[in-house]
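Help! Submission page says 'invalid entity' but I think these are all valid:
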Amino acid sequence: MAVNPPPPPETKINPNDPQVVAEKIKTVFADAVESASAQGIVVKSDKLLDVTRYLRDKLSFDYLNNVTSVDYPDRFEVVYQVSSMDRGGAPLTLKVNAARENPTVPSLVPVYRGADFQEREVYDLMGIQFPGHPNLHRILLWDGFEGYPLRKDYKEPYYEEEKKPFGTRWDQGHHVIAEDRNPWHDNVKYPANFDAMSYKPTQEIYPTLGLAEATSTRLRTDKIVVNIGPQHPSTHGVARLKVTLDGETIVAVEPVLGYLHRNHDKIGERNTYLQNIPYTDRLDYFTSMSNNFTYVIGVEKLMGIKPPERAEYIRVIMAELTRWQSHAVAVGFLYNDLGAFYTPLLYGLEERELILDLFEAVSGSRMMCNYMRFGGLARDVPEDFLGKVQYLVDERLPKRTDELEAYLIKNELFLARAKKVGVLPRDLAISYSTAGPVLRGSGVKYDVRRAEPYSIYDRFDFDIPTGTTGDLYDRTIVRIAEMRESLRILKQALKDVPAGEIMTGKKNYQIRVPKGEVYGRAENPKGELGFFLNSDGSPNPYRYHVRSPSFINMGALNEMAVGHKIADLIVIFGSLDVVMGEVDR
Amino acid sequence: MVEEQKPIQVAASEDAWLDEQVRRSVWVGPLNKVVDFVDLIYNWGRRNSVWPLGFGLACCAIEFICTQSSRFDMSRFGMELVRASPRQADLMIVSGTVTKKMGPAIVRLYNQMAEPKYVLAMGACASAGGPFKEGYNVVSGVDKLLPVDVYVPGCPPTPQALLNGLIQLQKKIDKQSIRDVAWYRKGAQEGVPEPVLGPDLFDARRVEEITELAADPAKLEARAIKIVKETKGEKK
Amino acid sequence: MAFGLGLLNGLRYTFTRIAKTYIGDLRHLGRSHDPKEFARRQSVRGDGIFTAQYPEERVPVPENFRFVPFLVYEPKLDESGKPLVDAKTGKEVIGVERCTACGICSKVCPPQCIWIVRGTTPEGRPKPQAAEFYIDIDICMNCGYCAEFCPFDAIKMDHDYELADYERHTSHVYDVKKLLKSTTYYSKIHPQDWAREEADRKAKEAAKAKKPA
């Protein structure tokens, strides 16, 4: 399952290879490893914390990429992907089995802090308990919700059939609206003997102002819990932050998520592989080309096919244009949060409109591009496309990048508000599994395009900008520098676009994906986007999970915001650059 | 299901149309024409300064932002002033998928908006659930919770499609008259009760029905339409 | 550096921008709204005011644009080769419906928003024509898969985006009558695709004619 051709085994040992690592673990913990194969290492659940501590401290696997769970008929399985910041390379897969009745797996939060939100999500959607987790509540659904949706035996209210395509659409497809098929005439289902008249919700959904204990010794003051969101001008969508304040200083921030949870994983399991591509558009809706790209290369890894050269170059051009406009929007919205109401944002959006015009001419839609297919692209680009991109890259985009930077770098107001605000030190950035500009702003020189090159990124010459202190200023400077690096890659790619085919094989709507498991990842503008796909040979995935960079980056918000004022919280949240479609999926 | 605001409440009588005309004409008598003129100015002022609520849920919100940006300027219609507070807003553009967790918040915002208020369902998700309709956390359309004035289909609707929807809203406002708008009547608008997040989202107006059905599975079964699929004589 | 110069530097861009829009107006005095100037303003080489004043000025949609799908039919032609138009409805008379109710579009649609009932001949055998064909545009995600994978070029993506309405229950489920649009319309909105498909069809027919009977 290696992406690159495997090195000759006698001369080079891959330190990330599961079997090599398993041997090393066995020397220290004799009975911790149940089995090891190219798919990953199966670790016994009671030894999980010891093994992961050993991996993190001695073998420098210090970064937890992904925590997923799979529901097999006889057991549950929790799958972890860990990787090394210094070495790079493909991540190492660890698996832990859990029983079907009362599944429990020890929590990895003491070892990797980034496991916090992800384990809560596994608990929420799959029902696996994590003893040792500091705050095991549902994260995407609300506390009173009944059922664990991602289990295979959970049938949602509008359930029709196990897998698409549904038999009721053809050829006796009499139109029935979904409301009529459901006995409650709505997308709901209640347990038997549910007494709605006397139901009192146990959890507080919307605390207004709560008071926490006073701890200040000078004046007797109380701490207030203030609710920001889910409708708020600066929360970048429907995010809710429960902020505990002592005066105006922040003591704790707890994000409450799930207001846009659109059941991407569950719908993804019902869809076929091809039908999932338009749904990936709607994850991080600014970067739909990149999302398509990441998903398609993940499935191509499983299928073992490679697209032709022209398709590769065009994919890279689309991905880098997306990166430019996503960062322009991120910086623009940061200005909004800082108070420069709308003007710099409008200037950034103008270039974005031109790029979206190009996307519309190529794929048919400004935002939901749905352009990549397995083995290539949906259709070829129009003749004037490359000329227009050349003009943009040579003339307009560098000027706009310089302009956006000029608003920032010497602006005294920005420097006063951004320097030393929202600091995330380097070791915490790695521990919280942050990715993208948040990670690089803290000084970690890690980019998936260099660590595990995909597509044709190993042919291009580009730098990886990093910050030094991990404050707001560094993250923004990193984003602007990445915009310049994108333009560099675009210039190189545009020079070499070959003529030729854009698709390997014929256009086919019946995709055969062999049995296997893959974690396909790519460097999205927001961070490392990953797709965990488990295929059982059928046209629909058995397990489909999205490793979402915005979701995991939000785990670091508390760390960054404590000690600052509320006005700073808004800007720190803006510098994280989260998109709620990706956070809640 | 909540009905949308109807401009005229016509009583069911024998000659309802005649009654209505008499009511309209006799109520204002010879001042009818003056009221028409007042309507003209009243509606002209209202339609050219509809202030949207800053309320973006999902991908459609980005097209909303693009509509507000310099290319498809919404301020040409007077709608540039996006208010964060519902007390100051006239129009709630529900842009994006309405999830069950967000349901109580949306209804609460709608109740906090002052009359006259309008709701525009932007996109397929807000109209009827969209491509995510089959999800367990998705409300099939915001009109399950609130009365909607204009629906704009698309996934996402392009900024020009949204502007078309806003123009339709302006035309709707033009047709209203102070004689029969709901906010000048006694006791007309009491607000929509907030749904409750229980084992699943439920509407506070349907509690008796839900309790009754949850206790009687046979009755529940009878309410669903069964799909009958005939393939070569087999029934499913 | 004196305090505040950074701010002024930023403001310089804003004021230059404002000035440029007026200069742009003066340069193209009176011609700002004609179509060629509008197209230039909206292109990558544009400058000046970027606004497109909908509904008087519409940004044209490209050929690949996808909104809701529609079914294609070939109109009946009169002797001179022009399509016959029904006087009552103003629509072109249906000659051949291209859709054979094969069901591929319905199978490949990601949110499953297409319902098809195959027609039957009077003897009861299946007929390659759709008796019922529904698309619920409130579920459709405008992905274009139906048009991409249709083997008969029978379903294509429409360009009409002005579909806002006051209610949805009766008007957002499209049946066959509402979906059928003629190839005249299709060739107008997708000229290059139409030219390519016609060329392919003629080439196929020529190849078939060449084969010995």
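Support: the input was valid. A stray whitespace character was the problem, and the output above is from the cleaned input. The first strand of chain C starts at residue 69 and ends at 75.
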